[in-house]
Amino acid sequence: MRVFFGWAVRVGLIEKAPTTGIKRVHETPRTRVLTDDEIRILIRKFDETRYGRALRLLFLTGLRRDEVLGMKWSWLDLDKGLLTIPPENDKVGRIRDEPRRAGLCPMAVTLLTEQRAALFAEGVSSEFVFATSTGGRPWDSLKPILYDLRGRRPSGKPGSQHKLAKKRVAVLSDDVTIHDIRRTVADSLFNRIGAQPWVVDHVVLGHARPKLLRTYMPTLPLKEARDMLQKWGEEIEKILSGAVGAEGHVL
Fold it and tell me: What pairs with residue 77 in β-bridges?
């Protein structure tokens, strides 16, 4: 709004910008990462639903929620373990000016193969990997499940207090979000697996690289990213099967 009104003043459409004197609002950067117990709760609950594999893929790739829910089979080369997201479907596609390429670890490839078989068994034919039962794109399909874990109704509203209403028990706090998965993957790759920060940032998370790097280092280390993500996937399996100690580490 400041930019727009500033332009309007410069071209003479208005004399004074209505935003003048209004203090800027700065959001506190969110640094929330999931504990092992929260990871276990999320995966086990979603595994009971249609979107269990979609959530697991978020954990195995660090992709954004919309990138997973909007994923199409045409973007995938499972033989090569490669995901190619067109620029128009990538958040920073216009900056990158090229398709985003992401490496898929063997566990992710297996999961996607299972998803294809599940859709075939269901008789669902769709361009979307995690299609709805009618073949459409799942939009906010993860939210109702997350709300249930928070002890809320599918709409996100608090549970009814009527004596005949279903009693809802919160097993996750309200501050847990789906986007926390992406941050947790990045933090775990760095602190648990020992990945190089720039590989996590530019290869796994897919943030746009500076132009100089795109020019002189055009080839991404996808194999290195796959190896890191595979180790992280193995760590997730330990989290799901093991107990959690006082420090939040897998026993």
Answer: 82
Spell out the residues 6+ positions from residue 30 whose beta carbon is closer than 8 angstroms to its own.
183
pLDDT at residue 165, as a whole number = 64
Identify which of 187, 196, 193, 181 has the alpha carbon closest to the alpha carbon of residue 231: 193
Residue ranges, the chain, pLDDT below 50:
244-251
Q: How far apart are CA 112 and CA 238, in angstroms?
A: 21
CA dihedral 155→159→162→168, nearest 10 degrees, is 120
**What pTM did the predictor assign?**
0.83
Domain 32-142+178-233, CATH number (from 3.40.50.170, 1.10.443.10, 3.60.15.10, 3.40.250.10): 1.10.443.10
